[in-house]
Amino acid sequence: MSAVTAEHDDHHDHGPAKGFMRWIVTTNHKDIGTLYLLFALTMFFVGGAMALIIRTELFEPGMQFVDPQFFNSMTTMHALVMVFGAVMPAFVGLANWMIPMMIGAPDMALPRMNNMSFWMLVAGVLLLASTLFMEGGAPASGWTLYPPLVLQTGNALPFAIFSVHLLGISSIMGAINIIATIFNMRAPAMTLMKMPLFVWTWLITGFLLIAIMPVFAGAVTMLLTDRFFDTSFFDAAGGGDPVLYQHIFWFFGHPEVYVMILPTFGVASTIIPVFARKPLFGYASMVYATAAIAFLSFIVWAHHMFTVGMPMAGELYFMYATMLIAIPTGVKIFNWTATMWKGSMTFETPMLFSIAFVVLFTMGGFTGLMMALAPVDFQYHDTYFIVAHFHYTLVPASVFILMAAGYYWLPKWTGNMYDERLAKLHFWLSAISVNILFFPQHFLGLAGMPRRIPDYAVQFADWNMISSIGAFIYGPSQLIFVYIVYKTIKGGTGEKVTDEVWEGAAQHGLEWRLPSPAPYHTFATPPKEVPTEHF
Amino acid sequence: MKKTKQLFAALTLMLLGLGSARADYTLNLMKGVTELSNEIYDLHMLALWICIAIGVGVFGTMFYSIYFHRKSMGHKAEQFHENTTVEIIWTIIPTLILVGMAIPATKTMLDMDNIQESEMSIKVTGWQWKWEYEYLDNDIHFFSSLDEASNKARQKDSGIDPRSVPHYLLNVDKPLVVPVNTKIRFLFTAADVIHSWWVPDLGWKKDTIPGFINEAWTSVQKAGTYRGQCTELCGKDHGFMPIVVIAMEKEDYAAWVEEQKGAAVAEASAADKEWTAEELIAKGETVYANNCASCHMADGAGMAGTFPAMTGSALVTGDINAQVDLMMKGKGMMPAFGQMLSAVDFAAVSTFIRNGLGNEVGDSIQPSAIKTLQTSLPAEEEDDEEDE
């Protein structure tokens, strides 16, 4: 493109390339953002279908539909697809679309690498999905891939490992790009402490990703050499240690879950002030709390392993460190509440999803605090109580906020308004069914039902059935979202949206000072003045 | 809004209907039957009530605000956006609450770790997919696996209603028996992959890890039967390796110990006698159902791509030595049965698969022949990756 621009007026707006190849070769941050978001949405349904297979088998006691090995593959693949194929790419997609527009930059700092990281993601996920059709079945050892069990995987093992490598490289490139963009491409007036919280949380998330993805790649590479090259990193018979894998995995795994939640915090902090018509309360403390959570995420990993038999000092340390996370997380929740306090609130769909996020994420936080207590975790560990906990922090938290983000920015992306009535139906169906789905799982776990089992004792039957009914409502109701997005792209309600879209939004974010829909190229020259959350 | 109400009404009715059908489920953690499990329960309730109190405060404020501070009520937004005092307060108060929770948690943690002065020791070994128990003080040793009734009912399309099976999936062929009011030290390890031994009534679970030994202790206060399950994903039949602990009064326990010694002698003599083909096939059918059928299927058809068929298999109908060698050592997803099954079991199941499931070799394998084979095999822990 640079060769062409030389002959053009620099301020002339190039449209996208024509035809299908536009999507393959694009280096435009908006195109790549769209690709990421559509890919993530597709994977959300693939992973969701796997979840529905799980919930269908668990609808009643006894084995009715699948065999236990395939069930284990489903729990494993559901998690891997949702984490690496849906939630993470969705946030990268939002970052691609929104970060340049939020900081007054014309594009991402490294546009070609941006294209490459997307297509590597697709390759990685396809490679992972291909294992479903291999001899011996897809990996069935849980997304944690613990040895020695994972070494019993059939032909799928090396493919799953290479898929993790590809996904890791893709994530690292995405993270480098985001960090480089934020540090180098901000409008001159956009000082660090004026950046929207979404940009801040992604900046911190980027560093988490760069720090952890190589660790995970290392761990799975050690699995590879243990299986194929006669090493014994994790084999006690050869002087190795199976628990070592768990330490390495969770050193990656715990920050990894914050990779999925920190951008969630960022979007919530962006949306709530707009619909409360107030500046975000405690902007600086929100930034510091995010940094504190990110730091703590690196020093608490072994709370996933309280039952492996660590020394007492280790158990106590990880218990205390984990409890500390409640403090910055609490600060965030109090700040969101204070932002709503004495506001002038309206409840469009993005706000509804954001409020549901604050409430339901807090419930996930409460159970998190309970299981931080090591002695009680000896009961909770590996039960449905844990399943309920992390689904509360992922589904009505990350996924709800992704929906909120979709509704919030869709008018800016398309220039059209979505159908608010249908969107509210989507919200209410989701908010109610997600609780029918996951709340009973607390009871199941406390009553003694282990996780990752394809069949259960009959005293667990009632709550499993209710949970499955919740899943059967929640899953299909997400199709409403697809329909709404499709209709909005095709013209929506027909009402032309303003540049600001939401009342007063231009006071909060630069993106709302651009035309709707946002032109293919924006901020070729940086804006002179930027909004802050201190107005 | 009307739709929402209808939905709520429908769900409430559904809940009531389900609830009245059977009411044996529980909602909360069980108190358990040991001092530790009671301490843990109290800690759980403390944490729960603290969370509920904070939740009521935070959500109460939020919903008050959502109700009164909205545009449709004509509320005008105030523009405050910072207050350092408030930020400090809501950092300090949670910190104090956390310290309040950490103190009793630390105390319980130290109690759990105090394994001294135990009166007896039991070694628990996790296998795919059963438990091995060794009483280190009096030479009692046995395997414990899912009971036959549950095992039959849990097969896909078995046609058996799980509700008709007593303690479905929570019953074993041979439970662990312990005396009450005795400090028992448990040693945990595993033979193949990581498992985790959990009986909720005892208050804890502990991972069993190949090559490592973990410790925990318990002292059951009340005689009774306590059930649990493996809680670490350990492969295909992870959901089907329950734990049953029977706590007996001390004198009953002593009688049980005597009984076990007699049983061990009987088992040894069974391996020496000559068995008829019919006897072997009949026993082999049971051994097959309990150990092999879940992968190779009850009719021996296997599962294409994952588990080989028994019917017509060259290995099954071929050389007996190669066959028994594979059964003993395992391969890939197939567990090593070498130490799990007795010589009688091997002889019976071999005879069964060679002369049942559509195969007709026409021989019968004697336990004495297996015993010779067993002694010629290296004791244990051959490199299980050699097949790759």
**What value does the average pLDDT of chain B take?**
85
Strand count, sense and closure of the main sheet of chain A? none
Q: What proportion strand of chain A?
A: under 5%
What count of domains describes the coordinates of chain B?
3
CATH topology of chain A: Cytochrome C Oxidase, Chain A
Work out the oligomeric state of the chains in this entry: heterodimer
Please work out how many helical segments of chain B DSSP would assign: 11
Number of H- or I-type helical stretches of chain A: 16
| Unreliable residue runs of chain A | 1-9
Largest sheet of chain B: 5 strands, mixed
- End-to-end Cα distance of chain B, whole Å, is 61 Å
CATH fold naming of the largest domain in chain B: Immunoglobulin-like
String of helices and strands of chain A: HHHHHHHHHHHHHHHH
How are the strands of the largest sheet of chain B arranged? 3-2-1-5-8
Q: Estimate the global geometry of chain A from the Cα principal axes.
A: globular
Q: What is the tally of beta strands of chain B? A: 10
Name given to the CATH architecture of chain A: Up-down Bundle
Largest interface: A-B, 112 and 117 residues
Give a quick summary of the entry.
The complex is a heterodimer of chains A (535) and B (388). Chain A has 535 residues and is mainly alpha-helical. In chain A, 66% of the residues lie in helices and 0% in strands.
